[in-house]
Write a structure and sequence with these properties.
This protein is an alpha/beta fold. It has helices spanning 4-14, 16-32, 103-121, 138-145, 161-171, 184-188, 235-238, 246-252, 260-266, 271-276, 297-314, and strands at residues 38-39, 44-47, 50-58, 62-70, 84-90, 96-101, 128-132, 153-157, 177-180, 193-196, 203-207, 217-220, 229-231, 239-243, 267-270, 288-292. The chain contains eleven helices and 16 strands. It binds nicotinamide-adenine-dinucleotide. Nicotinamide-adenine-dinucleotide is lined by residues 70, 75, 81-82, 106, 110, 132-137, 157-160, 163, 184, 197-200, 204, 206, 221-222, 224, 293-295.
């Protein structure tokens, strides 16, 4: 059992940056072996005010799944927008090995993934980040980007002033110049990297085409389910678009509003192709690159597997019996006596 307490202890012991870096390496390792995974676009159930999703995947050793939601109005009643739990099982016997909190792990893996993509796609000299949406994911995102670029300034905006206060308070320890902005337009001015992680289950033009200058890299993270996007559509034809997994991105990502022909013309590739080096992220200084992220099972697999390995190393797990231990495997009823 990896409870929130166990994960906190694990991250403290291993170090926040070390955990993020190791996760970036784990993601690259697993994207390199893309073809070894059995995968599927995640099944989703859309309900009033949100979505509930299951994210299964397996390779030759482990099967993992994550349960995750997105309910953008939850903060109005003091609840988080996104919460998650997950499981890692052996594939040879089907026996579960670990059940884990994944709310924090999701923030880590989303940030580590955006950092991997940014490293492959943003200009080498990118030093100014704009972040739009300073909610639960935001600090993790900046801490991930700091590991791959020399970030000099973070320009930030949220429609919720309290979320901006919280972000500034949490980020001041990093010693990076923090610029509070009055609008998303002001925040993206002069930015080399734009990270958008807002939550609203609608098509919203959080970033307008006119504001996006040549040479910028965009991480679009909040457009991640049908009917939920953050970029003005005109940005897409100007961008070199990279997705995680086309089968899932085409219904969930920014590209969901393109038709088949437009998608074929505009989507440059899947991120595993960049990780493997069979395609190149940025070919010149003026490319506008777009990582149209929705989050996929492979990223949760990498996070769960790393957590499993570190929990073994640090012995921080709470052992709980979730599967009956029987002397006769057919005598299940005996487990109740
Ligand atoms: N791509 C992925 O892998 C991935 C993973 C996790 C979360 N997400 C998505 O990232 C988004 C953010 O998640 P979170 O956990 O930080 O949510 P959150 O609710 O904690 O934060 C979202 C913030 O966006 C702000 N916001 C909403 N509309 C805005 C607008 N038009 N302009 C500026 N700010 C705006 C809200 O005030 C809020 O502070 C969600 O949409 C979530 O689904 C994506």
């Amino acid at each position: 059992m990896i409870s929130v307490d166990a994960l906190r202890a694990l991250v403290v012991q291993h170090g926040f940056d070390a955990f993020m870096s190791d996760l970036m390496e784990a993601l690259k390792r697993d994207y390199q072996r893309w073809d070894e995974f059995t995968k599927m676009p995640r099944p989703a159930m859309h309900v009033t005010g949100g979505v509930l999703e299951l994210m299964p995947i397996c390779d030759n050793t482990y099967y993992t799944f994550k349960y995750v939601n997105c309910h953008p109005k939850n903060p109005l009643t003091g609840k988080m927008t996104v919460v998650a739990t997950g499981q890692l099982s052996r594939i040879d016997t089907g026996y579960p090995l670990m059940y884990s909190e994944m709310t924090i792990l999701t923030a880590f893996r989303t940030a580590a993934m955006a950092a991997v993509a940014t490293d492959l796609m943003a200009r080498r000299d990118a030093g100014v980040v704009a972040i739009i949406g300073t909610g639960a994911q935001s600090e993790f995102q900046i801490k991930g980007l700091r590991l791959i670029r020399d970030i000099q300034e973070v320009r930030y905006f949220d429609i919720d002033a309290k979320a901006m206060d919280k972000f500034a308070e949490n980020m001041k320890i990093l010693g990076i110049k923090l610029t509070r902005c009055a609008s998303a337009e002001a925040a993206v001015q002069g930015a080399d990297i734009i990270t958008v992680c807002t939550a609203c289950k609608e098509h919203v033009d959080v970033i307008k085409n006119d504001w996006v200058k040549a040479g910028v890299h965009i991480n679009a993270l909040g457009g991640d389910c049908p009917g939920k996007t953050e970029l003005e559509l005109d940005i897409l034809p100007r961008s070199k678009i990279v997705v995680e997994y086309l089968d899932q991105a085409q219904t969930e990502g920014e590209i969901q509003r393109l038709n088949d022909r437009e998608r074929q013309a505009m989507v440059y590739g899947e991120i595993h192709e960049l990780v493997k080096g069979t395609k190149h992220g940025r070919e010149n200084e003026s490319d506008i690159t777009l990582f149209d992220s929705v989050g996929i099972g492979l990223e949760d697999y990498a996070a769960l597997r790393l957590t499993y390995e570190l929990s073994e190393k640090y012995k921080l797990v709470e052992e709980q019996l979730f599967i009956p231990e029987l002397t006769d495997p057919k005598n299940l009823v005996a487990s109740l006596s």
